């Protein structure tokens, strides 16, 4: 099975302020932000009260009342995104071979909204130390073990190959797609429905990031709250959403005449083995992940046209990442546009890596680099070309997208446009 | 031909034995670790039995600074990893950092830690939530903490596919070694025996309500009535076979084959995927059914699921064609820890030429499987481990004895 | 109110919220020892600060916390807040 390559033939996206791929690209290319005051619950008691939320009507996306009862919001997102991706690929309506189709879904915090709400009920608002099972939803098990996300997607598309949830914190969205690529390359599947989802905007998640001051307290400027690489940045903005792809073995995709959006040319992941939340300033482990991804793609730094950054907007991350990109791309780092879409759609933890892959593919398709919104005051320590405020027309055939997560995970992926590597 | 990936170290934290030695000593004679729950008062609940890891005192094994920031499952995992490394004779500080990784499975994360923080949030307010909550409960925590404790910077990961995840993690570890990483710590440890975790588990409707530890978890028996949950699991040291042999490591066995499938959706009328997973594992190993000497069953103890498993096994191996055993009846089902613990039992069965028993079960003859109810001496050259996760996850893994003169 | 936050209070809260590093004697002369030297990183200090805020019902500002390098710094910051809230 050597020589098998992986094509992206379908894309589905649910992002804050943008349902569907078309709307998602409009939002990014126009540099609009979707961050706002939290509406999903009353955020008054919390330090950070901004988020990038999706106005999501499950019924409008074909989900019935029973689907909504059974599935956590994150699972609903994933199913909707998977259906859009499948339709886009032309493999809907029974065209998939179930045995040769697998599913991987990334998520950092699983069904946290359901768990938070269920706990509130069975503990009677935290009053009961021994919680009351008679009040538990019969679907609670699906929230207890979030592999239910992969199960829901597999049922929705009719996949019977390998299925799993990948949960490596905030690199889950990259690692899920990276894992799916490995399954296609080794021949365990010909098609993977791969992506990630997250719906973390719940009191417990907001409280846990408050406790470590990781999220921004810029509550009075919600629409400008996410400021990656800006000197005034002071934390990330929590987001939600999902992106799911149809990945196919390249030759068979060509043979069926599928439109190939991109090829996943290389992927690497490493650990910093340093701290569960902290980062070493030199970025050595992320740089190593980038090196592995470039090696697998048989490319060098000079091949990269655009870096889609992790760019969470915490003091620490943006310095770490800038160091990692310089360390791996050398002088070329200064010549390459780099931007963070988290400035617009927030940081949806485990989902964002996949959403950023979608943004990277669309950047190649349109030869446009999405901007870093809200970047008005450059940080002298962040001295790369971060494409402030306005999207840039830019010939983009090869993109490097990177991610960094709690637990020390550092991941990188190299994507190429369909024309780039026809050889 | 790809180079073999071998297991050179085992670390066990199981309800019937803390440490590989005590676990195997209990398992080979059929001694169970199932009993009434002691970690919280189970009397309000319809199910009251579990497999709890006995005598685990984290303070004895781990730095004090780690305790406020770790759930029980992470403490167990860190200790299991330490023991596995020691068993393999590996000192991580002596190896290049990027040559070692950690790939674990998780099912429900640090649920007890999460319970305490949810309680703080809802009873007192958000400012009472711990600074460690942002990672102490999440699924990636064991991989992260093991990598930090041991300075392992290589490719790492976390898979969640309920009980099947333990095998998926081992298979992913094998992939990373084949891609060039020398050593991966892999397996799974779960521990969600807390009131909140218990209520969540009860909603699976697969938990036995029996009060009798010897009659509560009886797979393939006419009296099957669901399973008993447990805590713990196992971590293994997987190494590139070549470098393991070069350093003169003791080799337990080779990870020879793996297959994974997902069941069709409810009501589709299509056949379940378990048999296909077993066949894929055999194909991957380049083996025929006759070469497998024992099957470590998933053993759901739900009649419909037992029937599906028995049919898959007899479909591949023939009626009563291979010894089948389920030592997990002595520990309960350990979620992501279950299959890695079965892998430990399989490797020890190979080492000692002994198939551990499935105590207390009277096999229903209708299943037509050769269930090993008393420890059975046998030459075990290869073993199949089967694991299924809630919702339709099926994974199968074949481990093979080390070849003479190395692998 | 005339509450004072003492080194012993800090010792107790550090033990409860962050534990003690191997080789560190919290009961020793630690007033001017660096937190890093004592084995406490930013997360441990955030947890410690949060426990102090809850117990003493004060709010420590982010910069005071970030600038506290030693137990003495932290005691001063906490006691300044306590005096301010008593005033």
Automatic annotation (TrEMBL), chain A:
Q: Which residues form the Ketosynthase family 3 (KS3) domain?
A: 3-417
Give the Gene Ontology MF terms in alphabetical order: 3-oxoacyl-[acyl-carrier-protein] synthase activity
Give the residue spans that cross the bilayer: none
GO BP terms: namely: fatty acid elongation
Alphabetically ordered keywords of this record: Acyltransferase, Transferase
- Cite the Pfam families for this sequence: ketoacyl-synt (PF00109), Ketoacyl-synt_C (PF02801)
Give the CC-aspect GO terms: cytosol
The family note in this entry says: Belongs to the thiolase-like superfamily. Beta-ketoacyl-ACP synthases family.
Q: What is the protein name given in its UniProt record?
A: Beta-ACP synthase
From TrEMBL, chain B:
Q: Which Pfam families match?
A: ketoacyl-synt (PF00109), Ketoacyl-synt_C (PF02801)
Sorted alphabetically, the keyword list is: Acyltransferase, Transferase
List the transmembrane segments.
none
A GO MF term: 3-oxoacyl-[acyl-carrier-protein] synthase activity
Database matches in InterPro entries:
Beta-ketoacyl_synthase, Ketoacyl_synth_C, Ketoacyl_synth_N, PKS_Beta-ketoAc_synthase_dom, Thiolase-like
Using the record's annotation, list all stretches that form the Ketosynthase family 3 (KS3) domain. 2-401
Q: Which GO terms describe its biological process?
A: fatty acid biosynthetic process
Top-rank taxon, per record:
Bacteria
Which PANTHER family does the UniProt record give? Answer: POLYKETIDE BETA-KETOACYL SYNTHASE 2-RELATED, POLYKETIDE SYNTHASE-RELATED
Q: Which family does it belong to?
A: Belongs to the thiolase-like superfamily. Beta-ketoacyl-ACP synthases family.
What name does UniProt use for this protein? Beta-ketoacyl synthase
Species in which this protein is naturally found: Streptomyces chattanoogensis
